[in-house]
Each structure stands twice: as C-alpha cells, then as structure tokens.
Amino acid sequence: MRALRVVGLDDDGTSVICEDPVRGERYTIPCDERLRAAARGDAARLGQIAAETETQMRPREIQARIRAGESVEQVATAAGLPVHRVERFAYPVLLERSRTAELAQRAHPIREDGPDVQTLGEIIAHSFGLRGQDYSCGEWDSWRGEDGKWIIQLHWQAGRSDNRAHWAFHPGAHGGTVTAIDDHAIDLLDPSPSRPLRTVRPVTELARQALELEHTDLGQHPADHAVPAAEPQVAEPSPEPPAAKQEQPPAPEITDPEPEQPPAPAAQAPQPEQHSRKAEAPPRRGKKNHPIVPSWEDVLLGVRSQR
C-alpha cells in the first residue's frame, strides 16, 4: 500500500488533493462525513456510516421503531442486520423508555374527583399485597403510541395466566398523571370496589316465640305452612323402539333347466325264460270274519275240509 501526501484543497474546497511522492501523481478525495470521522479518529461514527450504506433503514428509523415499542431483535430481523449493530442505535432509546416507566410509577392516577393522593406505584403495591402476589416480580415498560403519548405497561404472572395492564402517562408537575386504558388497569387501581357482605345473625328464642304468636293470632300454625315434601316421581319406562323389520333375503332367480337329451337305448340283454306258475288260490272264507269250526267228521277222521 502506497502512502500519499496531502497537498491541499481544490479550488471549490470540496475535495482534498493528495500526491504520490514517488511517482508525483496526484489524487483527489471528497471531503465527506466519512473523511471527517476518519480524521478525528471516530471509529463509532465510521461504523454508523457503514451501516447506513449497507441497509436502507437509517439509524433514525431504527430509533423510531424502538421508541414505538419494538424490541431490538424485531428491528434487526426487519432491517436484515446483526443484533449488535442495532443495539448501538437502540441503547439510548431503551434508556429513555426505562426512565419514562420509572417516572410513571410516581404519577397520580386520575379519579372521578381528580388526581389521587397516592402514586401509581403505591396503589399497585397495595393491590398486589391484597391478592397475595409479589410486587417486585412485575415488569414495567413504556413506549410512544401513534398519537405521541407515552403508554405504560405492567406485566406480571398469576399462576399460569399472563397479565398486562396499560395506562396513558401525561408528564407534568408533581409527577404527572396516569389514566387507565384496559380492565386490568382499572382493577389494580380499585382493588376493593364492592363492600363486604353483611353478616346475618341466627334466629334467637325470643324471635321464634314472636313468630309463633303472630301465626297464632292469624289462626294459623307455623307447621301449617310447611311445604309438603315432593313425592318421588317414578320414571315411566320409555317405550321400546319398534323392532326393525327383518329384511327378507331376495328370492333366488328361477332359471329354466336345459332339456336333457335322452340316453341312447341300450341293447336289451336276453332274459331267461320264466315258467309261469299258477299261484295257489287262498282258501275261501265266509263272508263274515268268524273262525271256521271244523266239523265232527273232520275231527274224527283227522282231516281238514276245504270250505
């Protein structure tokens, strides 16, 4: 790297003239903010100028978005820059937001009859004590809204619920004032809006006797006003739903059988000659079914006559 020697300024004073002592060549360097920062040795300013040239989001825009409530990570993601580069521009704005949240805790809430005597921090600490919660676990934050007014937020956890309360902060004399925006903020400013319930004493013996005398004068007895016990209702059996009709299977289709071909006549085998025999005629019997009594001759001769 060759070293150049500063000769002076050009005629219009917008550039610096440098010369190469070896070759005698001259060069011009524009007198811009980067050259001035380099001449002063301001490395932070040089880094800021480099960030401005690398991205379209200017430092003023980064600070405006941080002041509006965005985090450093959100702005870095939107700008496409590393987080450490955004932190350099966001640091003074984050201090401003933290300081505003501290001032808002010393402000006085607005009531129906005017500003409260106690501060916002004192009232919130008392409300947390009534609820059995730790006031030191709450996280305060602030940012500027679209209308330019400061919004104060208190974030705390109660069990598994994640709660946030918001107020509008108006800086002024004696700490300024705050106005509740949502329901959580209203509940914290008025922890006990309803009075405790009135206790009811038990009925004494004198009061019971007075009631009995009053009913006696009217011709009624306190027992007459007893409400009869309701008779137990017997649940009627619900009608059974009609049985579903049994689906009949579809009748099988009847197909006409194909006509069978008669078998071919087989040759008749020669049958042996059968000799017809005369069957013996059964014995005739009388017309009436009476047993046949043999005659005396048949018994004597030992023969059986055919009748």
TrEMBL record:
Biased composition (Basic and acidic residues): 274-283
Chain positions covered by the region annotation Disordered: 222-307
Superkingdom of origin organism: Bacteria
A Pfam short name: DUF3071
Identification of the protein by name: DUF3071 domain-containing protein
Annotated Low complexity bias: 226-248
Domain annotation DUF3071: ranges: 1-169
